[in-house]
Amino acid sequence: MCRVVITGMGVVSPVGNTLADFWNSLTGGRCGVGKIERFDASSLKVSLDAEVKDFNPKDYYDSMQEIRRSDLFMQYATAAALEAVDDSRILESDLDKNRFGVYIGSGIGGIGTTLSQSKKLMDKGPDMVSPFFVPMMIGNMAAGAVSIRFGAKGPTLPIVTACATSTHTIGEAFRAIKHGYADAIIAGGSEASINELAMAGFINCQALSLADKPEEGSLPFDKRRGGFVMGEGAGILILEEYERAKKRGAKIYAEMTGYGNTSDAYHITAPEPEGEGAVRAIKNAVSEAGITDCKKLYVNAHGTGTHLNDEMETKALKAVFGKGAYELHISSTKSMTGHMMGATGAAEAIASAKALQEGIIPPTVGLMEKDEKCDLDYTPQKAVKADITHAISTSLGFGGHNACIALKKYEG
User: Domain boundary at 184, 212, 247, which?
Assistant: First the structure.
């Protein structure tokens, strides 16, 4: 079986629209949560979100026509993919485009387009609905658009598993390369669901934080936590077969070494209380990766800031690692980015790869008040240096979807 490495990364996020800005923000503890500015939220119970700032699609497209025909989630994916592909320099190599794939998912897809076109239907009638409504709305179109952009003709598909989406896309891309079905895959996720319809839905299922102050919005593992803050953006990684990457002299961020994919089969929104499904996903990834030393392991936790998730995830880590769970380096970067939904797993995989490369654990900012049920080392408030050799990143989605990927420090 083939080894798989990460040779390029790109990000659009609430804390930066380039890889460098994203990582510097995370290690600097800069929080991207703020008051909702995208639309008039005065009728909603929530006042906070984590919006992408200063994003200009003209920087990534050649014409306004292309922009008008692309939902925002497609634009985020394209921007992050352009950075990742450029970062990897993979197109400068002898690349068989028939073995170059795209696995990009979205939890919700083009809901912004759905909302705007629904208004047109109601206000002006069916003839005014855009002929591009369907290709802008459907969740596979970020993968399709990126495939077209780079001429990638290999295995190409989206995955939709809510908040676990892009951890699954990365994991399935890893398997496709590992088992010889592709040489390289553009993998990740994108989400642009900050609008009144999506947020009203999440409010009414009691998932979002009702805090009014930005510094009290996203509080993973803190006793004061009361829900997640909706974020947005995209994260894209270039996964590549190791021998090919080595031969062309590619820059390698980290090696991908394990993947777990399970279901709770329990409830449409709530996690299984003891974390049984999450335990199996983590165990599968850890076992495949051969991880044994908890002291040198970083865990980028799902850490949403909901009462049920954070308590369950803590239980799951204890079930997998036993007493060694107290030696783990853990953090939730959602404390800074908010919950980027279908993009969150990819953004957190990027954070994990950079943590391994730099030997720095990004913090869980805002973690001020300890919860006796969440008693592990969550790296509160400030980043710390650490000698880590492995990382895992977990994502847990509505519907009971659990995903975990494992990475290893690359040392040549």
Answer: 247
